Amino acid sequence: MPLLKKKDIPRYNYNDYLQWEGRWELIEGIPYAMSPAPNPYHQKISSKINTILNIALERCEKCIALLPVDWKIDEYTIVQPDNLVICYPLEDKPYITKAPSIIFEVISESTEKKDREIKYKLYEEQKVLYYVIVDPKKKSIEIYKHNGRKYKKETISNNLYIFNIEECKIEFDFNKIW
User: For the chain, which domains are there?
Assistant: First the structure.
């Protein structure tokens, strides 16, 4: 018999989140520690993803690539994707409030379940156009594209993929991130 029932688990909000030290995500009121910090290999991959996105978006006047920032979905859900592309002007707030067009999550043993299950469902509900899961251990890429109702897994040929967002195309060579 479980010790705690769902009604016994505290539900936190954005004001609580602001008081916490360190890096956290809050999903439906449940806090998830973002520590320890990502390992150097994870950061190397994330940095390369960001570089490729920035170069690809140099001519796109509408979209920008960002490293982890708070995405405040509502008072009880704030996440920090590893890499993201937004195609709208930044607001004068310490977080974004609209869904990104592309999210990359570089998974690790400690985040894999959350990234593959919880964040997958969350991003699908929020209609993030592309959700990319990068697995450094297996050197594998999974790309999911939202079709208006749900995600559909995309096929990648030779680790090359073209993201079509707004008026912009991002030709992404995943061979360059390892």
Answer: 38-177 (3.90.1570.10)
Q: Evaluate the omega torsion of the peptide bond into residue 36 and state whether it is cis, within 30 degrees of 0.
A: yes
Phi first, then psi: what are they for 134, rounded to 5°? -110, 120
Would you say 29 and 92 are in contact if contact means Cβ atoms under 8 Å apart? Answer: no
Rg over alpha carbons for the chain, rounded to the nearest Å, is 17
Q: What is the pLDDT of residues 61-107, one digit of tens each?
A: 999 999 999 999 999 999 999 999 999 999 999 999 999 999 999 99
Q: Are 146 and 165 in contact (CB under 8 A)?
A: no
Query: How many C-beta neighbours within 10 Å does residue 24 have?
Result: 18
For 122-171, the pLDDT digits (tens) are: 999 999 999 999 999 999 999 999 999 999 999 998 999 999 998 899 99
**pTM of the prediction?**
0.95
